[in-house]
Amino acid sequence: MDYPKSLTKLIEEFARLPGVGKKSASKMAFSLIDMRKEEAMELAKAIVEMKNKLGLCKRCHHLSEEALCSICQNEKRDGSIICVVDTPRDLLAIERAREYRGLYHVLHGRISPLEGVRPKDLFIDDLVKRLENEQIKEVILANSPTLEGESTAIYLSKLLEGKVAVITRIAHGVPIGGDLEFADEVTLLKAMEGRKVL
Length: 198
Prior knowledge:
By secondary structure, the protein is of the alpha/beta class.
């Protein structure tokens, strides 16, 4: 039996979300049917409001409802250090650790020739401008430890050489609580390369 058109459309829209298959999309759609109309309208209103209000910080390109995000507005942050990340989710992951007190720069992707993502498709030029206009002493490259993330970090390190005093790369390796026998070769290689004296 076919679903009503409106329900079919909703399932199709949910299925467009990353990581959501047809089965999950159906489950989400049917949960909305069981929801009170007021609750469903609040959900719809929240989605529309987010799409209308949310933009990018004009300085670091993190998500923001204002010209500058809350991190760039925070005068207690160390403005001499920029941590470069691939996505806003990566920024939020670093923030959860509550240790880093510098600023950020979000590229919104990684260089990936196979997917047609070139340096000009990312916010790399804006990072170079920041180094020219701000008093930056260190750039931390916190790109993902994937092939594309490593390529992006290498590209950035060569591009930024001579434009900033220190360029560092976050360490990669075996996670706390992980077993060596289950780690892949690249993870073990990075763990060995990143070793330090105790």
